[in-house]
Amino acid sequence: GENVGLHLPTLSVQEGDNSIINCAYSNSASDYFIWYKQESGKGPQFIIDIRSNMDKRQGQRVTVLLNKTVKHLSLQIAATQPGDSAVYFCAERDGGFKTIFGAGTRLFVKA
Amino acid sequence: DTAVSQTPKYLVTQMGNDKSIKCEQNLGHDTMYWYKQDSKKFLKIMFSYNNKELIINETVPNRFSPKSPDKAHLNLHINSLELGDSAVYFCASSHEPQGRGKNIQYFGAGTRLSVL
After folding, report:
1. What is the residue-wise DSSP string for B44-100?
2. Are the C-beta atoms of A72 and A26 separated by less than 8 Å?
3. Of A77, B22, B64, B102, which sits 20 to 30 A from A22 (CA to CA)?
4. Does residue A6 have a pLDDT over 70?
5. B110 near B90, Cβ under 8 Å?
6. Which residue of A has its CA nearest to B98?
């Protein structure tokens, strides 16, 4: 079965608030993690990535945190905007040739 | 210009038919993929090609056959379509094959297949 994420949960936040989307993985050999955003009717789009030798990486308004001890990955979005409404996927590379996608989290941003 | 383009965007067909989905990327990438996304948004890899060579072949029915005429194209042919094949199929490409360095994948807009 798949190792990453949970069944599709939903997160609802107020515009301007910070969002935190969580992801669990089970393969301790995974060496690379990526977050993707999928808007309605479109394909997934790269947001940010992190290697397993790091525990934090920041981009524009987004931060990814990696806790290898508990096999947990999170995506933080600062000052969430309506355009952030989408399904967010975490993905892990299993140390080999395969990238495994999590089940996704749907983010609703209330204006 | 669209980086990864798939055609058609929508495909409605009867059970038992044979259909193809085409994918082209103009990013100069070496690796291309096919994914299937079900109604619950679960995204599962089906195939991956690197420089026209098959490197990932997940457990999919052999009714699904990928073909890569060159490294910019990866097509998916499906024989004897079944109701359970209804899904959104995504093509993607990346510069590095999975397992080496980073692996940022660029996705097409998807092909929504409905089997009636």
Report:
1. EEEEEEETTEEEEE-S--TTEEEEEEETTEEEEEE-S--GGG-EEEEEEEESS-TTS
2. no
3. B102
4. no
5. yes
6. A97
Tell me if A42 and B41 make a contact (CB, 8 A cut-off): no
Q: What is the interface size between A and B, counted as CB pairs within 8 Å?
A: 67
**Cα–Cα distance between B49 and B97 in angstroms, integer?**
8
Task: Please report the pLDDT score of residue B1 as a whole number.
Answer: 64
* Cβ partners under 8 Å of residue B42, min gap 6: A2, A8, A101, A103, A104
Distance CA B85, CA B114 (A): 8
Residue A83 in 3-state DSSP? helix
Tell me which residue has tokens 């394909």: A43
For A49, which of B45, B102, B107 is closest by C-beta distance?
B102
CA A17 from centroid of its chain's CA atoms? 17
pLDDT tens figures, A41-92: 999 999 999 999 999 999 999 999 999 999 999 999 999 999 999 999 999 9
B43 vs A88: CA distance, rounded Å: 12
Band the pLDDT of B52: cuts 50, 70, 90: confident
